[in-house]
Amino acid sequence: MNLQNVNLNHFVHAYKIAPWRIQRQWIGSVLLAVVTLAMIAALYLDVTAQAAIAGREIQDLTAAIAASEQASADLQTQLAALTSASVMEQRAEALGFRPMETVEVEYLIVPGYTAPKAEILAAAPLPQLSAPTISPEYNQSLLDWLDETLSSSSSGGLQ
Fold first, then answer.
1. What is the total count of domains within the chain?
2. pLDDT digit string (tens) for 106-147?
3. Which of 55, 113, 135, 155 would you label with 37, given CA atoms 20 to 30 Å apart?
């Protein structure tokens, strides 16, 4: 007991003589808390920055897709204009072509060639649907079954 009391008095005396030790412990605890909060804030900022960058990339890709779709639609419009009947006729006439006359038509007969027969697609016959048949046991209500059971048991007991 005496040894414990002496050790306790020694620690109390040491802290009274050097109060900077307690201050150092408090400062260390506060700095540890500040460093921990700074690390959590840095992690939060990193995740937020990555999410913002990913969102911006999605916006850029969406804009690129819209621009590509617009360019594709423009090209389809140009192709439709260039391949219209009136433009193709003008281009053919500019190249020296002219409409064909009926007397200029010449048919060639190819021996062994048979014209393909047109296949007429008919709708497949629908299967005949009939009303489902339900077993009589499933058409009976609970009260009907109870009545039948009671009447059969009472009539069975009389025989």
1. 1
2. 888 899 998 888 777 666 676 776 767 777 767 778 888 888
3. 55
